[in-house]
């Protein structure tokens, strides 16, 4: 029922060729921090003792203009914003429990940011009322969550601070957000190729596509090379086939599974492999994951180094592996066994989690997305395992 559901989107009314401008929004309809600083909120902003980030300025603006109702210039736009969102802050606590652990943790961090933002804007609006700049103003956590979600899911990345950010904007976060009415109806596809820029002659923000479209096709833009956990966290959706999705492998598991296939001496000496890992980490190993393309290079090279004999390691040969040198046959065989064990272990857990979420009777969109994430993880691990097994050296006859 939820398959490929994208909500509202934009459709091509004629065929579109590579290089065509698909949307062009005049600068007076772009909502940036500069617009907020010139708005009716400007007098409060000038004397409020705490600087607000560009994102919070946009939230304050949207909340304020929404309260003004039909008298707001922005009422037609605000009236078109969704009433609710499908990001984790709209999940019930039970739904949150079913999310993959790493995503759940990121969602908790996001909730903390949201509460922090709410507390800052509560003080801001109270201050505005005390100073009699704002009258009859009421706003609660739900209003803030709504505004924060609208800003987070609909802003474009747009560098407004060409001449340096305004002194009233909190510089702890970059001033790169813009709400662009109408343009924000464009949905995301990881295969869409677009470029956005400000056309200073026409004074419009334009998006040019490299991807062609037929008449009546849905036209997409690209929100960034995000995996599905990030898309769910930041935008409240998942893509059915997302080339950016990966399964992260923990550092502890890389060490544990390497230790199991290593020489007794190394595996029994508890701190040997963690120390090795620390040294390679210091050289810049961060993407320890696997994807539909197989284990990441960082995962492979770290396993190769952890699975090296102590003598070779002692001679400093591990540095060569980081530079692309081939490991010895013995090391390679151990490293392959370790990666297979990791994948089998992760796959078994993914199968169990997948079955657990599938057994829950729910037709909510939140649940649908959780199921998609679990199935995707299982699929990536299965495909990755197949690839690793395919490269198993054949037995000598
Ligand atoms: C910038 S808005 C796009 C317009 C939106 N669909 C609407 O109805 O207003 C971004 C939101 O659209 C939805 N969305 C965008 N791309 C999507 C996709 N490929 N699949 C499902 N939902 C998508 C998500 O809810 C996201 O937060």
TrEMBL record:
GO terms for molecular function: protein-lysine N-methyltransferase activity. Residues 1-224 form the SET domain. It comes from the Eukaryota. This is Putative SET domain-containing protein 4-like isoform X2. It comes from Stichopus japonicus.
